[in-house]
Amino acid sequence: MTGHNHLTGSGLDALGTRASLEVAGRSLTYHRIDGLAPADLPISLRILLENVARFHDGTSRGDGQVQAVLERGVSGAPVDLYPSRVFLHDTNGVPTVVDLAAMRDAMTAMGGDPRLVNPVIASELVVDHSVIADVFGRSDALTRNVELEYARNEERYRFLKWGQQSLEKFSVVPPGTGIMHQVNVEHLARVVMVEDGWAIPDVCLGTDSHTTMVNGLGVLGWGIGGIEAEAAMLGQSMSALVPDVVGVRLTGELPTGATATDLVLTLTELLRAHGVIGKFVEFHGTGVAALPLADRVTVANMSPEFGSTCALFPVDDETLRYLRFTGRSEDHVALVEAYAKEQGLWHHPGSAPRFTDTVDLDLTTIVPSLAGPSRPEDRVPLDQARARVRTAVDSIRTRDSKRDTTTTVVIDGTAHEVSDGAVAVAAITSCTNTSNPAVMVAAGLLARNAVRAGLRSKPWVKTTLSPGSRVVMDYYRRAGLVPDLEALGFHLAGFGCMTCIGASGPLIGPVSEAIADAGLTVASVLSGNRNFEGRIQPEVAMNYLASPPLVIAYALAGTMDIDLGTEPLGHDPEGNPVCLRDIWPDPKEIAAVMSASIDAAMFTDAYANVFAGDRRWQDISVPATESFAWGEDSTYVRRPPYHDDMAREPGAVHDIVGARVLVKLGDQVTTDHISPAGAITAASTAARYLTQLGVPAGDFNTYASRRGNHEVMMRGAFANVRLRNRIAPGTRGDRTLNFLANGRESSIYDAAAAYREADVPMVVVAGRDYGGGSSRDWAAKGPALLGVRAVIAQSFERIHRSNLVAMGVLPLELIDGGPDDLAPTGAEAITVAGLEPLNSGRVPATVRVLSKGRSFAVRVRLDTPREADYFRHGGVMPYVLRGLLTSTAETDQ
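Predicted structure:
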């Protein structure tokens, strides 16, 4: 789109909605939507309406988009959303910047201006996913982990420094500052943005699915793929269908003993069961006012675990209090209040928006809970935890043919009897909970009470503390709680995602040996948001989400096989039992400590120089050049082959004929299964590649850290150690059968290479909810580079389906039957017929998939005309490049 500002839409006023807002001594321009929006339009859709009204270009298509929002999506027409900000982290951000750098090279090769490949809206990246919990339980853990982080990631950080210097409107929050979503909520989020005299909603789209955390502040935003982010950074709109909006009516207040963690685990279970995939969730009712903003962002953070696109809490007095509390200026708080009230974005407890449907939750019913052992929606009430853990252990024993295990583990010369269900990792981690002072202070006070009672964490438990913000340690120090946490082994290990993202580091050595030698089945307990199989630590079979104080409780117990309501955590020096109820902190004490230990100055000081970084970051030197100087010997950052020999015009779309099934999977396969983020194990295909380049095993690092190297990530596709490819029964991880070699077993990477060499297309066949979890680009990029042309699944999670399209991989949805009907053995040749109409711009509603003489109807999941364009061009990057070349040619004429 031309003729307007990519952020404000200035120059457009097709609906006559432009108006002035006088606030804090300023006169700002905005698009007033009161005359357009009915009083019962949900607030999330009001924000969407403002966006399409602001960018209405006077065409009938613009009229249709406004009508689509007002009709609440009934018409099925897509709308174009222009975000105000794009938000990235380093593991998705590095490949995003790699792609931008590669696009600059492609522009140069095709005779265009590489400077056109440049962000046109605010694009902010937080380095938070690279620090690993290698060192723990000692006073120098933070220092050592940061040193290791910089040593491992020097190439990546130099590359990001290049981007910071060479790309406009691109900012980097350096390592050691905190977790992106906590930094966003505490500092970066504007709620209302001001640009060139315009006031607009802060619509934030991020390359991490938990971008929804900012919904707790009243900011509309959600997770997108990095390739979509690149398009948005370059001024492209996001094309989407207007979603259903599910209202969650909250009443009552949380009871004593229940935390925000317990609330969000209950909501995750409730809304997963209700069905909110691809929908907006919006909270309303009298119970909203009873939730502190820290509780709201805890809830909003886990919107992806519900399956919803977003989980919005509207702006109210509590929002304004939090903005002041975190150091935002009075002028800005006044702007947020005035704009929200003027635009109908302010929450009124008695209002009755007309939602698609409504779910009720009485906060008084919330009870202490866990979730696990492998899905966030599998809530376990604390009083049922022991029985459910034993069931999970039995299932794992049966699945892996293990016997009931008790073994002797010798640590520092002392022998300990450890049984199945032992806690191997206890981590206070993740922006979900470390953003919430109430649960963090509760954890600190529980630690103090435990130390006073003479309790200690069990020696086989790896204990870590990795907050999402430096402010956490400031208030812990002021409250005097650091010594007690450290007495239990919860020393500060770093400011970053760490255990929650799978960067949990190695287990305690003898525990790792017991798992390998005796078949011990162990667990992790973490205050995170995800616990998928193989994500937290490859050797840990069970993973449980819990509040920070419960993390400490399980570290003290040393096992999940315990009833915390009736059994003691340990004994005091006199031999008396100490139960959880004996050391659980009083809510009044928690409130008193928070009041005395936290103030706005802490946030102002912590974020005063947020983009400057420490000495290590400042010492990184790299020239600011139009094009990046790729290093041929780099093992972290390499120029990807996406645009090699790219033509100025897209080729024709053809049917997929005679494809081989590379991988056949069941239900609820996550992006962690498709593209793991954790450690690169010694036996993996990626490790063999790195070894050939001379990289020692100790420097393999994680898949997350090497996402700037397509060679590693291609080899990491489908390499999760917990993946079960049904083509190769009895195997786990990166294994398949090569049907060009008489069904010989091989790595998935090697089989794909053989198919590519023989010019044989490939497909992936899967069950329901394919691609859930993190918005992981490489879960789409990896299969695309391997040569996968289509994924045929019973259903897709929202972000991953979009990412597949963005990489030119066709998502096809089985209407009848499942993976075993379509490909009973996996040896079948697959043909997808009926795709040619895409060449004329028409998306066929269904096409036929032919397999072994049978025909299956499948739905083509190109949901908008823009997605059809992306697919026809081979993905979003070539689409954008060709658009930039066309606009350059038109300008030159």
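Summary: Residues 126 and 180 are 5 Å apart (CA to CA).
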